[in-house]
Amino acid sequence: MDLQDTPVQIRKGEELDTAKVGEFLKDTIGGLSGEVTVKQFPSGYSNLTYLITVGTRDLVLRRPPFGRKAKSAHDMGREYKILSALNPVFPYCPRPLLYTEDETVMGCPFYVMERLQGIILRKDLPEGLDFSPDYARGLCENLIDIQHKLHTIDYTRIGLENFGKPVGYVKRQVDGWSERYRQARTPDAPDFEETMQWLLDKMPRESDRPGIIHNDYKLDNVVLNPDNPVQIIGILDWEMATIGDPLMDLGSSLAYWVQADDPDNVQAIRMMPTHIPGALTRDELVARYAMKSGRKIDDFDYYLCFGLFRLAVIAQQIYYRFYHGQTKDKRFGMLIFAVNILDEAANDLIARSDL
Prior knowledge:
The protein is of the alpha+beta class. It has ten helices and nine strands.
């Protein structure tokens, strides 16, 4: 049984000019020949991802979405740059092959990378893949350990010293995501004003150990070894990576983490099988990260609340495109429900917090 991520026919309105793309790739990447076919990976809500097959070789192409885009989002050049810098020292990065700003090919910058063949977990475990509690725990431990490994890479040694500004990172993030939410808010969305104010009022001190942060590190952005699904062989979707506070990265990751004892409304927006028997809870993941890093983490409510808010902003920005008719992807229309549930979750966390 094939458990690997399978591309499908391209969604209406997101087609590529197969002949033009194929000709460009053959002219730019050595050794390509044969018939060119294009399919699309159906998951994901941000940058669009396509499988380009040239003869017998599979490549993955990433491009920005169609329609209105946040000014600083969907920077293909940044994503290509960090993959190029990280690939030699962090073996979980796919190998980048080319980047171009030549908009005559498809009207936007894009890049191409190698395809990592493996299993990507979505909402539920696929049929034919059974995880014992011990396997589930092992995968969770590997996931958090690799995130910590990323955070400890000396970014100055690999040429990424100017890739971000760690000083003032938390303040810029709170201010920036607050502004993005206000700009993307639609009449049917909550205002989040109390949450934004709490994040300003409770802001922690600057991190004394900034590092490379993925900013979208989660279970459905990792590739698993088909022969040993507990082993992680790749990390995908580096579009929001930067240099910043690792605990902000951890908080953003755990905002996605729906565990078995979460309330029904939160269960309704679960996107990954993080609830299965043996899976670590958010508290257990934080404890493992603290153990691996040697950090004292006693204010994690803040980072988790930020993660919930940030996730709501991302969902709202995508929903904005649907609300204004800029995309026909029906999945996007459901995101307003997620925004409201994340608002409730953030309010509940603030009410329980000792900060």
